[in-house]
Amino acid sequence: MSIRVGFDILENTIKKALINAGLNEDRAALCAGIHTESSADGVESHGANRVPRFVKYVKRGWVNPNGEPELVGKKGLAENYDGNLGPGITNAIFCTDRAIKLADEHGIGLVTIKNTTHWMRGGTYAWRIAESGKIGISWIATESCMPMWGSDEPSVGNNPFCMAVPRENGEIVLDMAMSQYAYGKLGVYRLAGKQLPYPGGFDEAGNLTSDPGEIEKSRRILPAGYWKGSSFALVLDLIASALANGKSGAELDDEKKGSCTGCCQVFIAIDPYLFGDKESIQRKWDYRVQRADSAHPSNIKFSVKSPGEGTMERRKYSMENGINIDEKIWVQIKAIADGDLNIVDIS
Amino acid sequence: MSIRVGFDILENTIKKALINAGLNEDRAALCAGIHTESSADGVESHGANRVPRFVKYVKRGWVNPNGEPELVGKKGLAENYDGNLGPGITNAIFCTDRAIKLADEHGIGLVTIKNTTHWMRGGTYAWRIAESGKIGISWIATESCMPMWGSDEPSVGNNPFCMAVPRENGEIVLDMAMSQYAYGKLGVYRLAGKQLPYPGGFDEAGNLTSDPGEIEKSRRILPAGYWKGSSFALVLDLIASALANGKSGAELDDEKKGSCTGCCQVFIAIDPYLFGDKESIQRKWDYRVQRADSAHPSNIKFSVKSPGEGTMERRKYSMENGINIDEKIWVQIKAIADGDLNIVDIS
Fold this sequence. Notes:
Chain A is an alpha+beta fold. In chain A, 43% of the residues lie in helices and 18% in strands. At the A-B interface, strand 2, strand 4, strand 8, strand 9 and helix 8 of A face strand 2, strand 4, strand 8, strand 9 and helix 8 of B. Chains A, B: Keywords: Oxidoreductase.
């Protein structure tokens, strides 16, 4: 069961929980704000739901609450950092802001980081770049949790890939992972006793299925676009680990630590007005988006939406009605805020 | 029916055909080489098969055989060209080589072009960047030929997106379009009387189907990854048309000209050794690829392959055994080479 909790209450409770986990006040405030925003935007699986797991990783020593990005390389428009296993959010926000700054100076900024930890919602950073007025592109290399196409064992990451456009009438943001459905989404359907809308993986006999529980058992989630998703994931891994000069997914697999612990990330910011004036580019974007959104709907009950538009609607609803949160997760976060760090990760 | 034709014979015949279409000898040689290579790599639909359509577009005035890229903007690592509706291949090769040069100077190079025409196989340019030793990223904005998710009419492009990694033991190249299957592929299955291996679109009643003929009738090809593919396509369109300061897909739709006529393209080259030495990056890539390729296969008869590896096997086979080409297309190309420009596009 889910309940709705006000933004400030959720944010303050997460902040207290993170201070108890060892973050200083500023870092706890930054991370709490981002966890809360992700849940407000409807991405609960990578928002508030991840707080208990984050605390568990800090306790295990897989995340260093005081780790900070350290410059290890700089060439013109490009900078490379060592994340020192600091919190994924504080590291990634730092890199995002550096990419924006480098794009101010050079037209394009490329920032890479190695030895960082889970950045939570991938879209956070591309949204932030777009809100600064730049085009944002970001992705990660991470451990294997999805079979390569043609394989029946986890052999490639389910990497997020994000692209964001700073449209003044509403940012347009692609925030996709390489699997058709995340494991978190499978759990949501299984708990609700529902089948997935479309096949999301293979059962243990190797048949494509929409049954979430069967896919959880086989660990054979389906790459988005079948062969396309796992190919894309591998190439993202190769490029990120090279540009960040850090660990590839295979090297993370060897370490056998949790999700995105010690991973590489890439942040690119580009000035959209390199060759066109702002007014005409914004007009071009409005026209393109309006044409996409006014495409004839296949079901008269639903309108066509460009990526990011649904997120903004959910954000508005959450601000007015409170943020949706699973009751059990909410109990856990309150317990951590009250000083009990012995939680079990149920996300 | 298909036959196999030697590389040199196919290349020389295409070259003669393109000279008859109005290209000068150098440009005809360049384009013929690339059409032939694409067919050799197994991408016939965007290789030799496209020669008759290209000739038709030149005859209509949609492609200017003498159009050349003209510099219209330059800012440090970024350059913007007007393609003057020249041949897509000669324009794109020029931009590719400029992006490589800019990456030599700045670590990263960004080249955009507007008012260009179909670049044929998208992977050509990412492969070329990788073969030069750089990481390549490229994509285009183009006219609508795929429904947005939730729509039943063409409302977004089926844009190619390519990423290439310069691994010395074999380039790893993602060359994907945003639909699950290209229209060309549907035709191949229909002519063979076969169903698609996986659903590839909707029939006219709105049901997901694997019947290629039904999808061709409805024009509702399936975006790869369902909602993911059409979202990705729209964002690629918005970014390419802004950075090239050219026409978006919606503006191309208004013009009602053929495929990719007057479109925008983006070429990015990145030095992979910005922060790591060449030997360790190459070793990292080899290890990652070897781990992916040695994943346990779901069918013992097939091995797992990283993207690009299948292409290289097909290339080798074509060089040894001749290039596969549809007999009817081959008759058409020979007719154009003999001076008959009145061909019908059957591709």
